[in-house]
Amino acid sequence: MDITAALVVYGRFGVLPMRLLQGIAAGLLGPRSFDGGIATAALGLLCHYFIAYSAAAVYFAASRAMPILAEHFIGFGALYGVAVYYFMQLVVIPLSAATRRPFSMKLLIIGVVIHIFCVGLPIASTIRYFRAR
Questions:
Q1: CA-based end-to-end distance of the chain
Q2: How is 17-69 classified by DSSP, letter by letter?
């Protein structure tokens, strides 16, 4: 859901899907990722899914130690989406080779909303669903 939301939202700003995925790969390759064509776009998609699965694994592990995360999945899922957004912005991106972008309140709000509804809540609700089984 997260990558789909990013493609739709940034597409409205004129960012083409391949360029967006290459931008993710820029975290590893720096600006040269934009010269790599479909190969670096595929790398960006792979990086995105690695990060998404890592975020899900962290919540899963935390929910085993703290069952309240699965029991109250809506509130904690929303908070987790916000936490993932800020972790990406304040830790992952600064440590990456990606080019820094100027601050935008509009993009911050869009990013937080996307991470609540397309990252945190889906992860928490999926863990709640399978835990009940």
A1: 23
A2: HHHHHHHHHHHHHGGGGGGSHHHHHHHHHHHHHHHHHHHHHHHHHHHHH-THH
pLDDT in the model for residue 31: 96
Interior angle at CA 18, CA 30 and CA 13, nearest 5: 95
Structure tokens at 96: 């990456």
Q: Which amino acid is at 39?
A: A
Q: How far apart are CA 116 and CA 111, in angstroms?
A: 9
- pLDDT tens digits along 2-27: 999 999 999 999 999 999 999 999 99
How far is 81 from 115, CA to CA, in rounded Å?
5
Token representation of residue 54: 């890592």
How far is residue 106's CA from residue 113's CA, in Å, rounded to a whole number? 11
Amino acid found at 60: F
